[in-house]
Structures are given as structure tokens and as C-alpha cells.
Specification:
Strand content: 25-35%
Number of strands: 25
Shape: globular
Strand order of the largest sheet: 23-24-1-25
CATH class of the largest domain: Alpha Beta
Distance between the termini: 5 Å
Number of helices: 12
Number of domains: 2
Bound molecules: shikimate-3-phosphate
Low-confidence stretches: none
CATH architecture of the largest domain: Alpha-beta prism
CATH topology of the largest domain: UDP-n-acetylglucosamine1-carboxyvinyl-transferase, Chain
Largest sheet: 4 strands, mixed
Mean pLDDT: 98
Length: about 425
């Protein structure tokens, strides 16, 4: 096991580029694998989650070469995947498991998806149920948990589906199954969620129509190879945004960050709290908006987080809770029950850690109330959740004493090299074996 040991204080400065977007990295390999022709991906995230996705497609016979962040995928075409000879191990990644389940539902062969302890306890019924409506045959453990066994050779029929949860993973899973289904797949979302799948499908030449919360796509469309430049992950950049906001002094420029409007809730929330954020050099690269983000330290105030921003900042709440802990006044979050079924129960695990660090908070079924205060030191447990580990490392900038964070190895799932980059930026972090 790995732990972070963070000395209190420090300032934040410099210019840095965080690793590639995890959501876009997964999708680039998935779509390139079933496209016709060779796709080149640059800026690919070398994290364990996205590397597992590469491995899964290699197991299904796709020729994929990787050198650092450059990935070359020789697409097998819509019907060119081969039966894997072993289980497909998705590790810690809910995105990989849910998206692959959709794709596998329409294949002529059987496959079995497995994951680590955290992933094996996460809800999969939300994708199994609509896939079964399309005609898929999937067996799961009790309560719709992984391992998941998919029976191939089923003829899928497109469905119209009103998603009960605002989940880009469910939407993307159904679109991937929809490629193999007869008819037009229609997915309606209760609130906007990240739209990387729709954008990338269009980039691969597939017609997808999105309007008023409804996404429509005809089955059987051929995907044509295309090159993808993966922007830096705004979810990883968020740690440095909050770091710059709460550090006593300094400023940071984050380069080439994906600023797709379905992902920028963290910027809106931090600005409402009083953060000084400038978005510079906006441009569009491969169908995704990209910009540099400049942040200066500022006094934050507690706010009521607007519920419509929750899906647009869903992965950033652990570090936003740290911002709330450093703010003047009270921050209230509601409508965020989804946080309980992420890599850990992010409401409870963050609340436990904040309490240890002396921050008064009240847990609620669908959110939390955090009273801004003074962060002390102590030993907190990340429960193997990468974003919790990194959030508490950021908290050390405003702490009065050392913070030890346990069970941090999974930081490599989304942000390899975090400790080194954080150190360079001014966080007093060291890695240690537990
Ligand atoms: C993701 C969607 C989100 C997010 C996850 C990545 C994706 O999950 O939390 O880290 O790539 O589609 P939900 O869509 O289930 O909220």
C-alpha cells in the first residue's frame, strides 16, 4: 500500500499540463477499435483505467500499439472483434465496465467482465436492465454486481429509453449497444451529462442527433478511423484549481484543458465561491473545446451548490469539499446521491476525513453540509479512491499540521505522476510505503 505524507502549507505556482482526459481516452480506444482503418490518438491517459481498456481490446484481437501517450489503433471494423480467451479485467473503472458491456451485448461471442473489489460492488443494474430490454443476455452477481457474463449472438433491437439517473456511462453504454441494434436508439437524459461519446461518434462519421435532452442514433452505421487529440483532463486539473484558490499565495496556469460545457461545473462552482479564474486561448480540437485556465489565490465563501451543476461537476466534489472546508461560511450540496456509488461512497468517506481534520460537517442522504473552518492535521483514509486521496493532498496547503493519507495507490488509475507534479507545483507531498 502507498500513502501520501503531506506537510502543511506551501504555495502554488507555475504552468503545467495534467494528464489526458480519462473519459475521452477510454472512448478513443473503444471507437477506434470498431472503426475501419487506422486511428492515431495523442495525449492518451497512461492511467491504469484507460490502459485496461487497451488491454481488453487487444484481448479481442485488435492491433493496438502504444508509445507513451501516442496510441495507434488498427480498427477491426464493426464485426471484426474476436472472442477473448480470458476474462476482461476492468480493474477500478466503472466507465470501462459499463461501456464495454454495451458493446459486448451486440457481439457474436460470449465474454466475462471482472473488476477489483470497488468495481465489483458498484451498481450495474442501471445498464443491465435497458440492455436486456434490447435483447441482451447478461448474468450478474446478486444485485446486479460484477462479474458480468455476456451471452453473445443475440439480435439487439433499438429501444427508446428514459434514463432514471443522469449518467453519461448509461447513455454511452446504450449508444454502443445501439450501433449493433436494429432500428434507432433513443436515449433521454433527465439532466445534461458529458457528451464525449456523441461528439466522438460524429468524429468517426456516425450520425448522432442530440436535442433537448434526447439523443438519437441509427444502428448499423459504419465508423471510419479518425485521429484524436485528447485534451488534459479537467477532473485532474480541478485539484490544482482548488490548490491555487486555497493556497496563501501564487497562481497557476493549466494548459490545454478540455472545457467541454458538460464538464465545466467545477469552474462555475468555484467562481460562485469567489475564485479568480480566467479561461484563456479557447480553441476547438477534434470536436472538443480546449483552453488554458489561469487561477489565482482568493478568499472563498460558502455557497448553496445549484443542483443542475451536480452532473457537470460529478467527479470534482471531493476536491470541492476541500474548497468548502477552506471557505468562509457554510456550503450545502444536495441532489448528489450518485456520489455514494462512485469508486467509494464519496459523501461518507470525505465527511469522515474532514471530521478527522477538524472540519464540522453534516452528512445527508443526497449530499453534505460543510462549515468552513481551519484544517488541522491527522491520518485520513482514502478507501482506495483516487480522487479522495488527491483531494486531501490539496487540503494540506491550508492545513496547520501534517496530513497522512492512506491507501493511495489507485491515484495511478487516473493521474499517474500526481505526487511529482503536485510537488513541482508547491504541495509538500511525499510518497511512502504503508
Ligand atoms: C464518466 C461518467 C461519470 C463519471 C465517470 C466517467 C464517463 O459517471 O463519474 O468518472 O466517462 O462517462 P456517470 O455517468 O455514471 O455519472
Amino acid at each position: 500500500m502507498t500513502q501520501f505524507i503531506c506537510q502543511p502549507g506551501g504555495s502554488i505556482r507555475g504552468e503545467l499540463r495534467v494528464p489526458g482526459d480519462k473519459s475521452i481516452s477510454h472512448r478513443s480506444v473503444i471507437l477506434a477499435s470498431i472503426a475501419v482503418g487506422v486511428s492515431q490518438v495523442t495525449g492518451f491517459l497512461r492511467g491504469e483505467d484507460s490502459l485496461n481498456t487497451i488491454r481488453a481490446f487487444q484481448q479481442m484481437g485488435v492491433e493496438i500499439e502504444r508509445e507513451g501517450g501516442r496510441v495507434r489503433v488498427n480498427g477491426a471494423g464493426l464485426n471484426g472483434l474476436r472472442a477473448p480467451t480470458a476474462d476482461l479485467d476492468m480493474g477500478n473503472s466503472g466507465t470501462a465496465m459499463r461501456l464495454l458491456l454495451g458493446l459486448l451485448a451486440g457481439q457474436p461471442f460470449d465474454a466475462r467482465l471482472v473488476g477489483d473489489r470497488s468495481l465489483s460492488s458498484r451498481p450495474m443494474q442501471r445498464v443491465i436492465e435497458p440492455l436486456q430490454k434490447m435483447g441482451a443476455i447478461i448474468e450478474s452477481e446478486t444485485g446486479g454486481r460484477a462479474p458480468l457474463q455476456v451471452r453473445g449472438g443475440q439480435r439487439l433491437k433499438a429501444i427508446e429509453y428514459d434514463m432514471p439517473v443522469a449518467s453519461a456511462q448509461v447513455k454511452s453504454c446504450l449508444l454502443l449497444a445501439g450501433i449493433y441494434a436494429e432500428g434507432e436508439t433513443v436515449v433521454r437524459e433527465p439532466a445534461p451529462t458529458r457528451d464525449h461519446s456523441e461528439r466522438m461518434l460524429s468524429g468517426f462519421g456516425c450520425e448522432v442527433v442530440s436535442a433537448d435532452g434526447e439523443i438519437r442514433m441509427r444502428g448499423g452505421q459504419v465508423l471510419r478511423a479518425c485521429d484524436i487529440d485528447v485534451p488534459a483532463d479537467i477532473s485532474s486539473a480541478a485539484f490544482f484549481m482548488v490548490a491555487a484558490a486555497i493556497a496563501g499565495e501564487g497562481e497557476i496556469r493549466l494548459q490545454h484543458v478540455g472545457v467541454n460545457p458538460t464538464r465545466t461545473g467545477v469552474i462555475d462552482i468555484l467562481r460562485m465561491m469567489g475564485a479568480d479564474i480566467e479561461i484563456l486561448n479557447r480553441r476547438e480540437i477534434g470536436g472538443e473545446p480546449v483552453a488554458d485556465i489561469l487561477l489565482r489565490c482568493s478568499k472563498l465563501r460558502g455557497i448553496e451548490i445549484p443542483p443542475e451543476l451536480v452532473p457537470l461537476a460529478i467527479d470534482e466534489f471531493p476536491v470541492l469539499f476541500v474548497a468548502a472546508a477552506c471557505a468562509d461560511g457554510v456550503t450545502r450540496l444536495s441532489g448528489a446521491e450518485e456520489l455514494r456509488v462512485k469508486e467509494s461512497d464519496r459523501i461518507q468517506v470525505m465527511a469522515d476525513g474532514l471530521t478527522i481534520l477538524g472540519i464540522d460537517n453534516q452528512v445527508q442522504a443526497d449530499g453534505i453540509v460543510i462549515h468552513g473552518g481551519s484544517i488541522d492535521g491527522g491520518t485520513v483514509d482514502s478507501h482506495g479512491d483516487h480522487r479522495i486521496a488527491m483531494a486531501f493532498a490539496v487540503a494540506s496547503l491550508a492545513a496547520r499540521n501534517e496530513i497522512r493519507i492512506r491507501d493511495c495507490a489507485n491515484v495511478n488509475t487516473s493521474f499517474p505522476g500526481f505526487a511529482e507534479l503536485a510537488q513541482r507545483a508547491g504541495i509538500r507531498i511525499a510518497l511512502d510505503a504503508e
